[in-house]
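Hi L.,

You mentioned the student needs an example of a multi-chain input paired with its predicted structure. This one should do, with 661 residues in total across all chains.
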Amino acid sequence: MAEESFLTDDLLSQLISVGEVDLLVGIPSLNNAATIANAVAAVEESFQHAFPRERAAIVNVDGGSNDGTTEAFLGAAVQKNSQGRGLTSLRTRHRVVAHCNTHAQGTIFRTILATADLVRAKACAIVSPASPGLTADWVGNLLQPAYRQNFDFVAPLYARQRYDGLLVRQLLYPMSRAIFGRRIREILATELGLSGRLASNCANRDAWHEAAIQESPQILIAATAVGSDYRCCQSFLGAKMRPPAGPPVDIVSAVRQAVGGLFWCAESQQTSWMNRTGSEALTTFGADHELTDEQANVNLERIFELFRSGVAELSPILTTILSADTYAEIQRLAALDERNLCFENALWARTLYDFASAYHHNLLDRDHLVQALVPLYRGRIYSFFLQHANSSAAEIEADSENLCLELERRKPYLIERWKKPSEVAA
Amino acid sequence: MRDTILRGLAQAYENLVHMIADFLPRFVVMLTIILAGLLIAFLLKIVLRSILHLTKLDRISEEAGASHVLRKAAMPSMSEFLSRSLFWITLLGFILLGISVLQIPELQEQISRLFQLLPQVFVAILIVFVGILAANFVSRAALLTAVNAGYRSPRLWSGMVRFVIWILTISMALEQVGLARQTVVAAFSIVFGAVMLALAIAFGLGGRDLARQALERYVGDREKLREKEEEPSPL
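Structure written out for the whole complex:
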């Protein structure tokens, strides 16, 4: 049972009215008044069609919206089936609102997981109201494997625009696959499904106060699932679209959030992955990961310039983090003409492993260390754009697979650098 | 005549014996105090070193870059440096205390002044090292932010941040030991004011385009900017 003092009295009293449920869907929100009603409609439609006899509830955990998100959540039209029935529950409430005094994702996710634990949900899904493609099928595809097939962790699969999600495809997926030994493509997804027992385990972990986990709690859930040998699967949802409006893409925040979380989880679970080799494919429901063919509007010159200036300006930091060979090779790349840059898989693998081990050994303030990776990530994606300007989706996918295999092959290099020199000698 | 000389010599001898009899115990006390001081300083050094190891000061110092500065200056680690500083300051204090026991009037006043300064010197050393930690940490954060945002001359920004913190630290340390208080405050005000004025002029005159871009970034047409600077969606 999650520590009850963590949840507010107001939420606890609402949960008494909910009672025990079979299914719980959590909707984290922050100023999503415009889209949350659609999310509620999708969830309730999914309950009506795929789980008509199950007791179900929705919890909206809000991080301090000032646009009436929670009112929109509670006021969203109730979906009824052909017999005019709403959701089935032993008690009277089906929608619960929790207010967090922070908009940190970690606290919001933890509240959802602790709620699932308290109402003894057998399966739980978390969906983002900001996802433009969210449908009832998405919710059903996340809940079905956990509720009916006894899977503990259901990672989503998306059809992506081929130049989107590069941080996931060039770093998070290959690295988490090589380290943890499970092929989970989306470990930082905005949608996921999990069993009640995994939700309970995650809610009670001591890691929630960590800054890296507050930024990216999804990685903690995924790492807990693979680290403790829970049954994991993937479920295809549909096209991952960008929100129609919003601030420009911030690569620095994304890298800090994703890489900080991944490195932290790798360190906290080092005993579970040190001896694993290779990687294990997961059961997949629906289609596999897909790439679509839209072209991207990307300012390549700027990306290259940021890579080149980053390597030059951050040289004192990079020499602390990278091995001498890796740094020399990166310097050579930065000096090349922009048309000839090729950031090869082997070099990228060594770079990532050098950063991971430097993070483990605290060679620098950890947040600074992760930020120092940003220029090199830009170099890598610039090289990706050059290499795949005219490639088909299949060719891009094949190259991604090669990167994953390269990281798996080079895992001994990570382990060697991860261990202290004295341990290696011993 | 002969008697007078002999009396004089006897008197001088008696005075010498008195002086030695008077001085020798004080000298022994001085040596005892210094030896005790040596022992106490050594113990304090060990205790402080253990406490600093427990608080993982070296790790924090390594992360903040202060250890790098110390290594460059061929100095030991931060915890070793602080514990050695405490050793020498304590020992120096006991040496001065010992010398004061000799009751040499000319030395007394100077020693009491030095005594008053000792705690302030120690605090000033601490201020300098906290300043070095802060300057390295903040300047590195500024460097990373500037590099990743694509600003021009990121090392200049980082260097300026470091310079301002050092100036602030040094003036605080000198203020602490009470050296030329008014001069330090005036010098700091002049340097700080000059730096800020230079920045304002440089940004206003030399960086008009940069200022326009910065304003556009915050209040201008975000969509237009997004189109111009788009990077692929990372997640």
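You could point out the following to them. Chain B has a mean pLDDT of 81. Chain B has nine helices and no strands.

Best wishes,
N.
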